[in-house]
Design a protein that fits this description.
The complex is a heterodimer of chains A (208) and B (224). Chain A has helices at 2-9, 24-27, 81-89, 125-131, 192-197; strands at 17-20, 39-42, 46-50, 71-78, 95-98, 102-104, 109-110, 134-139, 150-151, 166-169, 172-177, 180-186, 203-205. Chain A is α/β, with parallel strands linked by helices and 208 residues long. Chain A has a ten-stranded mixed sheet with strand order 4-3-2-1-5-8-10-11-12-13, sandwiched between helices. A three-stranded mixed sheet of chain A has the order 7-6-9, with no helix packed on it. In chain A, helix 3 (81-89) packs parallel to helix 4. The longest helix of chain A has 9 residues, at 81-89. In chain B, the strands form two sheets. In chain B, strands 1, 2, 3, 4, 5, 9, 10, 11 and 12 form a nine-stranded mixed sheet that branches. A three-stranded antiparallel sheet of chain B has the order 6-8-7. Chain B has helices at 7-11, 32-41, 59-65, 81-88, 99-111, 174-177; strands at residues 3-4, 19-22, 46-49, 69-74, 93-96, 116-118, 132-135, 138-143, 148-159, 164-165, 181-192, 211-214. At the A-B interface, helix 3 and helix 4 of A face helix 5 and helix 6 of B.
Chain lengths: 208, 224
């Protein structure tokens, strides 16, 4: 898991505007390589998301998109939801990092509902996946019950069609290309065959 | 010109069966005291338009818990389990909308637009039953304006002309909803005289706001 978080954090350049989803993605902010400075966007209305506040310094008007207390760094700015989604949908976010229930070899993403079981709503996820320049999925390679998540075709309702660019899991890094998924990196200690065995989609291997 | 009125007088305008828009994002920027009064008054059969239904226990969540709402249009309901329960039991009609779409639908209603074209939702169940248009080779969904009878907002500061200033992330849907309802009621923390807010600082022009309600200080009681 630590490898996954560190690996995702290597995907950014200084100055990138990045929106991080809840869960594994938020850990990425604390794992940026030395010298890399990115600008985090929070879709509830500000740029320049800082670390969690110290105990006793919480501000009920400054929360992140998950509703937790947050801070705004010097140079940050606040805006309304229309501006926030103009930034997101308008292509002004360089990258978004999100979790997934399923992702497939065409770059389709299912992350927002399991019919009859879990219907929390899509929130800002559909806009983020459509609007961000790069969509990076950060997740465990398989489900807790062992079910496969990197598929030939998603079976759950989609968040967006053909928008995913990169999938980073605890087993490796896969790029979505017009010819399917290319496994670019394998987590140290694993083999290609071991990654393929946990993946429904066919992988081709191309070490960088 | 906005009028400064009591909480009771403001909420007396919220009637059975109305469509209500409420600002806030998981409670942040939600007008808690206006919402408590709506619950207290026992208004029912409301159509609620909001980003979410709060966190179970907060003022927004109580609209659902106390069954004031029969139809909900929102982007996310995961932080209030009662909303999901009522939806699954067919006690509450829920329409889930992408957040960027909902805010633009509300803006369209306030801005006199016939709808908006968005790429969000193409290729998903969101597109079902909606008109698609191709513009310069890109496919878009036509999403229609969303208007309400009453908007309940929360602002940090207001002058007696109704000009509003919001604070930090509590702005969210509030200034957009201010444009899209027949009657706009703002719960305000600090109310000042006309001229005390610099025109450059105003976030919602006062012409949109009908009623200002002074937020009441509440006694903080320590449990136990």
């Amino acid at each position: 898991m630590e490898w996954l978080v560190k690996r995702v954090a290597q995907e950014f350049n200084t100055g990138d505007v990045v929106n991080l989803g809840i869960g594994i993605p938020t850990k990425v902010a604390n794992a940026l390589p030395e010298g890399i400075k990115i600008i985090l966007q929070s879709e509830n209305g500000y740029l320049g998301v800082g670390p969690a506040p110290e105990v006793g310094k919480e501000d009920s008007d400054t929360v992140n998109a998950g509703g937790q207390y947050a801070t705004i760094l010097p140079g940050g700015c606040c805006f309304d939801s229309a501006m926030s989604f103009a930034i997101i949908r308008g292509g002004h976010v360089d990258a978004t990092v999100l979790g997934a229930l399923q992702v497939d070899e065409e770059g389709n993403l299912a992350s927002w509902m399991i019919p009859g079981k879990m219907v929390p709503g899509m929130g800002g996820a559909m806009d983020l996946v459509v609007g961000a320049q790069r969509v990076i999925i950060a997740m465990e390679h398989t489900a807790k019950n062992g079910g496969l998540k990197v598929l030939k075709k998603c079976t759950l309702p989609l968040t967006a069609a053909k928008q995913v660019n990169l999938i980073v899991t605890d087993m490796g890094v896969m790029e979505v290309t017009s010819k399917g998924l290319v496994l670019k990196e394998i987590t140290p200690g694993l083999t290609f065959e071991e990654v393929q065995a946990c993946t429904e989609a066919s992988l081709s291997y191309r070490a960088e | 010109m906005a009028q400064l009125v009591s909480l009771e007088e403001a909420i007396s305008k919220v009637q059975h069966g109305m469509t209500l828009m409420v600002g806030g994002f998981i409670g942040c920027g939600a007008p808690d005291q206006l919402l408590e009064e709506v619950c207290q008054k026992g208004v029912k059969e409301l159509t609620l338009i909001a980003n979410d239904t709060g966190i179970l226990g907060d003022a927004m969540s109580q609209l659902i818990v106390q069954r004031c709402v029969s139809k909900l249009i929102a982007t996310h309901i995961g932080t209030n389990k009662e909303t999901g329960r009522q939806m699954s039991a067919d006690e509450l009609e829920v329409k889930l909308v992408p957040q960027g779409t909902l805010v633009e639908q509300i803006r369209a209603a306030g801005a006199g637009l016939g709808g908006i074209l968005t790429p969000t939702g193409i290729g998903t169940i969101v597109e079902e039953g909606k008109q698609k248009l191709v513009v310069n080779g890109t496919e878009y969904l036509l999403e229609l304006p969303v208007h309400a009878n009453v908007a309940l907002l929360k602002a940090y500061k207001a002058d007696m002309a109704g000009n509003l200033v919001y604070r930090r992330a509590a702005r969210n849907f509030n200034p957009i909803m201010a444009m899209a309802a027949d009657l706009v009621i703002a719960q305000v923390e600090h109310i000042v005289e006309v001229g005390e807010i610099d025109p450059d600082e105003v976030m919602t022009p006062g012409i949109f706001v009908d009623y200002l309600v002074q937020k009441q200080p509440r006694e903080v009681t320590n449990a136990g």
